[in-house]
Each structure stands twice: as C-alpha cells, then as structure tokens.
UniProtKB/TrEMBL annotation:
Its EC number(s): 1.-.-.-
Domain of life, source organism: Bacteria
Pfam families for this protein: Bac_luciferase
UniProt entry keywords in alphabetical sequence: Oxidoreductase
SUPFAM superfamilies assigned: Bacterial luciferase-like (SSF51679)
The protein's name in its UniProt record: LLM class flavin-dependent oxidoreductase
Oxidoreductase as UniProt keyword: yes
Chain segments annotated as transmembrane: none
Domain Luciferase-like: 2-151
Amino acid sequence: MPRPVRRPHPPIWYGVSGKLMLRRAAQRRAVWVGSPRHTIDELAEHLAVYRQACDDAGFQPRELPIMQGVYVAETREEAERIAAPAVTHLFRELYGRKSAEGERQLRNDAGAVIEDSATVSFDTFKNRYIIGSPDDAIQRITEPRDRLGMTELTCWTQLPGIGGADVLSSARLFAKEVIPAFRD
C-alpha cells in the first residue's frame, strides 16, 4: 500500500550481502546493489551467488549498481587526511563492533575476521572506498566496472564527520575531473 502507479511496479533494488537475501533478491526479480561494506573480492563472491539465483529464476537484470564511499581531493594525501577519520569511525564503531560481538561478520582488506574493533583503522579498510586524487578515483571506479560489470556507481559522498564545505569541494572535483573519464 499504496498501489504502485507504474506497471508492474517501480524497480526494486536490494542492498544485501547474505546468500539467502541474494537469492531472495533474484527470486523477486530485484536488482542487487553491491555494498560499500565489502571488498571487490567479496562483491565478486556475492555477485556469483546472485547471478546463479537469477539464472535459476529466469531473471536477467540489466543493471549492476555498486555503492562506494567517495572522497576526492587534489592529492591522495589530502583526501586521506580528511576522509580517513570517517572511514575509521564507521568501520570501527559500527561494522567492527558488530563483528567483534559476533552479530555481523566483517573482514578487513586482508581477509581476517574482525574480532576486536580496536584493530580497525583506515589502512585496514581503505580498499573499500574511492578516496584519493581524481586519478586514484578513476582507477578505483574502473576496477568494479571491468571486473564485475558494474553499470552504475552510487556515490556515498558525505561520510560521517566530513563537513559540508569539504563534501562540496570533493563533489565538484569529482564532477570536473572524474566523471568525464566515463562519458563513453
């Protein structure tokens, strides 16, 4: 409720990562959205489960969106100085704490399960984000596009603790220097 105006209904995207939910997304003919919580290798594993379930359901999605946290600055060092505290906070206080409590398993970039949230730092999770110079961003976007077949990138641009002026600066630089590289 209310009944959708669009027939059969508006497109539904599922941002899930567990095998059961990946299969459910395919059975419901929903597009899967890759989560910024995971590495490219983990997303590839999720995608394999989802694609098999899509084949089983006779569903061939035309889209493969992936969400990534994005912060772009003139240099990688500047981007990391501004964005690293946000990534550390998010992965330590939210995802890392839940993993340490056994509620929702999280692996660092090296593949180790987080059992103590104090071990979480920007360096142990930075491969999940597009944080760096415009050239770094172009390279980081190219990988999921080429490896996974990503058709859309959903940019999470206001990471926790990054101020509005910095967010706008990053968005403008992204629009000016990164987007044109993907206009084809």
